[in-house]
Write a structure and sequence with these properties.
The structure holds 2 protein chains of 2 kinds.
Chain A: E1 4-8, E2 17-21, E3 24-27, H1 40-43, E4 59-62, E5 65-68, H2 71-89, E6 94-97, H3 104-116, E7 122-123, H4 131-141, E8 158-162, H5 166-169, H6 171-182, E9 186-190, E10 203-205, H7 212-225, H8 231-237, E11 238-239, H9 251-258, H10 262-274, E12 278-282, H11 284-287, H12 292-306, E13 315-318, H13 325-330, E14 337-338, E15 342-343, H14 347-357, E16 380-384, H15 388-391, H16 393-397, H17 399-402, E17 406-411, E18 423-426, E19 435-438, E20 443-447, H18 460-470, H19 479-489, H20 498-502, E21 507-508, E22 534-535, E23 553-558, H21 574-579, E24 584-587, H22 589-594, E25 602-607, E26 610-618, E27 626-630, H23 634-639, E28 644-645, E29 650-651, E30 655-662
Parallel strand pairs in A: 6-7, 6-16, 8-9, 8-12, 9-10, 11-22, 12-13, 16-17, 17-18, 23-27, 24-26
Antiparallel strand pairs in A: 1-2, 2-3, 4-5, 4-18, 14-15, 19-20, 20-21, 23-30, 24-27, 25-26, 25-30, 28-29
Helix pairs in contact in A: 2-18, 3-18, 3-19, 4-12, 7-9, 7-10, 7-12, 9-10
Chain B: E1 3-6, H1 16-24, E2 44-48, E3 53-57, H2 66-70, E4 76-78, E5 85-87, H3 97-101, E6 108-109, E7 116-117, H4 129-133, E8 139-142, H5 144-166
Antiparallel strand pairs in B: 1-8, 2-3, 4-5, 6-7
Classes of the chains: A alpha/beta, B alpha+beta.
The structure holds iron/sulfur cluster (3 copies).
């Protein structure tokens, strides 16, 4: 091991770089995205390595207990159970969950196993963060990804942040927004809550939860009425404009839906449309709704009619969650896409892969998505690095059902999901293996090994190659060899190698050949749709969850800066837990008075889906009529809604009607 | 002379600086340790909810530092050249006189050794850890004159814009 190993942060998808040295973290001042800086999670990243709780040996369940087994035994058993399920019930009875925390190479091999044994029932956590982005942006722009790199924000003159609390979730992005502000850019934040992100705003639109489409259509209404749209862009680069009818969304009507003043709606519209380069940044406040796909569509409509896309500083930036969620999707760890965004419904597109893999036939048609798995009649479930029990409302409630199938969990910690498993395989953490991660801005970065995994833990890629061998497939087990196969399977990755991905800051896809410099800005000349034009498509506001006398408040969920998703990693970092130790719920002072709750009380929050206990934090920052709970604690999942966006199979995680009361 | 300067209007309260500080000053920084110690920070991000602001408060290494003047044992000393106020824990008796006079309240208490604990401006680093870590550059390491110059330029820009708009 050399004295300092460059690496990429294992937490969020910003993709910050730093060095690992014998004595800890060293900042990487010349990394293009973070320029050395790290958020608290990045600073605490090493706490995960060699943590006392790390899984060290393969373990098999015997009754209610566990026994340590050899890798040989564990892998043989895994293969035997999978084969038995296939033999007795066929490919419909098995399912796979890939990981947005594992490398591209690992996710690629994982989905390849699923497809070769005959199922498209493979998914990953992207389902619960950006599946609506995938559906909407792929249909409208051709490529379901951020159009511009993060650093481009510094070039924007107007930045519209909607449904994103990036100051807490992707703190390093704020660096670039502030740079734009230094140059005089206007920052608009649309969020029902006064978040630290809202502190960055010149204009904070504190809209009612779930009224994003109304707001955006209202802005479009103003833009069209005042003639601020980009006619030539609409004519030359888009289709479908004629169908866009937003005449109903007058500022006055939108004001009554969103609770904003008509003047603010007009102001936001003018700022966005008139600036020389505007960017929309959105996150799960947009996607995690039953209307998530429509929300994304509305955002893209706005950008398209103003021509604010395809130029430096002008684009649409969906901020992805986990460090490799973009990559896991690019690799086809999805029930509806094969590697390279080939639709599971198009047998022609898949044909190329069939030849590449030397396969007889490949499964066609969407497989089970994560939320459908617990209710399906599964015999075998293989989970790689996902804590579904703590991140998925359906799974949380139906965990009992999962126990009926043979479940393998490949993890670094004994998560609540692993506790249900029949077989637990100890995996290496990010810095103990090699391979590529693709950040939210399509930046592919090679991560080198900085240390050895604890005990007998092994890189996922090794485990997968061993599993494949037992199923009769011959898979490469070196990350570089797998990347070479990805070059052929995923067109955008054709020219990506250890060389260019391993250079400082890696390379941004599409990279069509080895000497290509990468493509930071998408859609510069044409969109990646079949005819090269973007599709404008009308969407309309429909009221989401309504309050009722029984459930008079709206519960919002989100993240806090010190934690990460289900918490299986951050909850094990003492420095982080100390600072955000327990489940809390933010309550507006008026609502607190109305429901007899005082600051610090233990309260019960109840939705139509379940109930959870938390400690009340009374704060004027919380909008009246709403509550807020962070989702890093298991309780939040138990009360989140189970409604789905039918386009993207995204659960409504953001809002639910609820009531609150003191626990006693 | 370089100082750690604060631009509170840029701070979003992420507390990365606090964690970076604590990690930099933890005794066993070995990556392959079992996590046992609770690292302690030396700067404090104070949330002021009424104004929707977070303000990082850290030792100013005051010229003529009052804490140094009152320290009875000479545990606190000021470097004549750099102005850095250092603390020698071997001599400190934990009397908290320094804490009583520090306007900023940045003299902390080492939970185990029961002596004072304060910012030492990371003697082993070119740039203090909190500054390197800060995502928004709310913390900068530079000379006061440069900060003032940048502030003057920013206000001039604002004013010029106003004048231009009214022409
Ligand atoms: S912003 Fe994201 S990638 Fe960067 S240090 Fe924080 S968690 Fe890691
Ligand atoms: S500890 Fe307080 S009094 Fe002493 S130098 Fe720092 S800011 Fe000044
Ligand atoms: S790291 Fe920077 S932005 Fe974050 S709390 Fe500290 S000073 Fe504020």
């Amino acid at each position: 091991m050399s004295a300092r190993t460059p690496t990429v942060c294992p937490y969020c998808a910003v993709g910050c770089g730093f060095y690992i040295t014998r004595s800890g973290i060293e900042y990487m001042q010349d990394h293009p995205v973070n320029e050395g800086s790290l958020c608290p999670k990045g600073n605490a990243a090493l706490d995960v390595l060699n943590h006392v709780d790390r899984l060290r040996y393969p373990m098999m369940r015997i009754g209610d207990g566990w026994i340590r087994v050899s890798w040989e035994e564990a892998l043989d058993r895994l293969a035997e159970e999978m084969k038995r399920a296939l033999r007795e019930m066929g490919p419909k009875s098995i399912a796979f969950l890939g990981s947005a925390k594992c490398t591209n190479e690992e996710n690629y091999l994982f989905q390849k196993i699923a497809r070769l044994v005959g199922t498209n029932s493979i998914d990953n956590s992207a389902r619960r963060c950006h599946s609506p982005t995938i559906v909407a942006l792929r249909r409208m722009l051709g490529t379901p990804a951020m159009t511009n790199p993060i650093t481009d924000l510094a070039l924007s003159d107007c930045i519209l942040l909607i449904g994103s609390n990036l100051a807490e979730n992707h703190p390093v992005v704020a660096r670039w927004i502030l740079r734009a502000r230094d140059r005089g850019a206007a920052v608009i934040v649309a969020d029902p809550r006064v978040t630290p992100t809202a502190w960055l705003a010149d204009l904070h639109l504190q809209l009612n939860p779930g009224t994003d489409i109304a707001l955006i259509n209202g802005m479009i209404n103003v833009i069209l009425r005042e003639g601020l749209e980009n006619r030539s862009f609409i004519k030359e680069r888009t289709g479908g404009f004629e169908e866009l009818d937003v005449s109903d969304y007058t500022p006055d009507r939108v004001s009554s839906i969103t609770g904003l003043s008509a003047g603010d709606i007009v102001r936001a519209a003018r700022l966005y449309a008139k600036s020389s380069a505007s960017t929309i940044v959105y996150c799960m406040g947009i996607t995690q709704h039953t209307c998530g796909t429509d929300n994304v569509t509305a955002c893209a409509n706005l950008a398209l009619i103003c021509g604010q896309i395809g130029r430096p500083g002008a684009g649409i930036l969906p901020l992805r969650g986990q460090n490799n969620v973009q990559g896991a999707c690019d690799m086809g760890a999805l029930a509806d896409f094969y590697p390279g965004w080939r639709s599971v419904d198009d047998s022609r597109e898949i044909d190329e892969l069939r030849r590449l893999w030397n396969a007889g036939a490949l499964p066609v048609g969407r497989g089970l998505t994560a939320d459908m798995m617990p209710d399906a009649d599964l015999r075998f479930l293989y989970v790689m690095g996902e804590d579904i029990v703590n991140s998925d409302p359906t799974v949380s409630r139906r965990r009992g059902k999962l126990k009926r199938c043979f479940m393998v969990v490949q993890e670094i910690f004994m998560t609540d999901t692993a506790k249900l498993a029949d077989l637990v395989l100890p995996a290496a953490a990010w810095a103990e293996k090699e391979g590529t991660f693709t950040s939210t801005e399509r930046r592919v970065q090679w991560v080198s090994r900085a240390g050895e995994p604890p005990g007998e833990a092994r890189p996922d890629i090794w485990i997968l190659a061993e599993v494949a061998a037992r199923l009769g497939f011959d898979f490469p087990s070196e990350p570089e060899e797998v990347l070479a196969e990805i070059n052929q399977a995923v067109p955008a990755y054709r020219g990506i190698s250890r060389r260019n991905a391993g250079a400082r800051g890696g390379i941004i896809w599409p990279c069509p050949h080895p000497d290509h410099p990468g493509t930071p800005v998408l859609h510069a000349e044409r969109f990646s749709t079949p005819d090269g034009r973007a599709r404008i498509s009308p969407v309309h506001h429909t009221p989401l969850e309504r309050t009722s006398p029984e459930h008079p408040l709206i519960l919002l969920t989100g993240r806090v800066v010190l934690h990460y998703n289900s918490g299986s990693m951050t909850m094990r970092s003492e420095g982080l837990v100390k600072r955000e130790p327990e489940m809390h719920v933010d309550v507006n002072p008026d609502d607190a008075a109305r429901f007899g709750v005082a600051d610090g009380d233990t309260v019960v929050v109840e939705t139509g889906w379940g109930r959870a206990r938390a400690r009340a934090r009374v704060t004027p920052r919380q909008k009246r009529g709403t509550l807020f709970m962070p989702f890093h604690f298991p309780e939040t999942n138990l009360i989140a809604s189970e409604l789905l966006d039918r386009n993207a199979m995204m659960p409504e995680l953001k809002i639910a009607a609820c009531r609150i009361g003191r626990a006693d | 002379m370089k100082e750690i300067l604060v631009r509170p209007e840029r701070c979003m309260g992420c507390r990365s600086c606090e964690i970076a500080c604590a990690v930099e000053h933890s005794v066993s920084r070995d990556l392959f340790r079992a996590l046992s110690e609770m690292p302690q920070k030396r700067l404090y991000v104070e949330h002021v909810p009424e104004y929707s602001l977070a303000v990082p408060i850290l030792c100013r290494h005051c010229e003529d530092a009052p804490c140094v003047a009152v320290c009875p044992t000479g545990a606190l000393t000021q470097d004549a050249l750099t102005g850095v106020v250092r603390h020698n824990r071997d001599v400190c008796i934990g009397c908290w006189t320094c804490a009583s006079v520090c306007t900023y309240g940045v003299i902390g208490r080492d939970r185990r050794a029961r002596v004072a604990i304060k910012c030492d401006r990371c003697p082993e680093l070119d740039v203090p850890a909190c500054v390197s870590a800060c995502p928004t550059r709310a913390l900068i390491y530079g000379v006061v004159e440069d900060l003032s110059e940048a502030r003057r330029a920013a206000s001039a820009l604002k004013l010029a814009r106003g004048v231009a708009a009214s022409r």
